[in-house]
Design a protein that fits this description.
Radius of gyration: 23 Å
Shape: elongated
Number of strands: 0
Structural class: mainly alpha
Order of helices and strands: HH
Strand content: under 5%
Length: about 70
């Protein structure tokens, strides 16, 4: 039994076109599908949902920031 062939048959399909993925472009099957996925990320098609924020609403407490460390000579 060849392990490489066994792993290839169990590989997940390309998430874009569902063809078998290739080692070179894993998890995609080709550069085209990898580019399609990248374009979806850059275009905002993929997004993590978050509750809406009202820009007019101000925070009650100001954000506390730590001072930058000083270089002591």
């Amino acid at each position: 039994m060849n392990i490489a062939n066994d792993n290839a048959s169990k590989a997940a399909p390309c998430p874009i076109c569902r063809k078998p993925s290739t080692q070179t472009y894993r998890p995609f099957c080709s550069k085209r599908c990898a580019d399609v996925d990248l374009a979806r990320w850059l275009g905002g098609t993929y997004a993590i949902p978050a509750p809406p924020v009202d820009p007019d609403e101000e925070d009650d407490e100001p954000v506390q920031r730590r001072p930058a460390p000083r270089d002591e000579d």
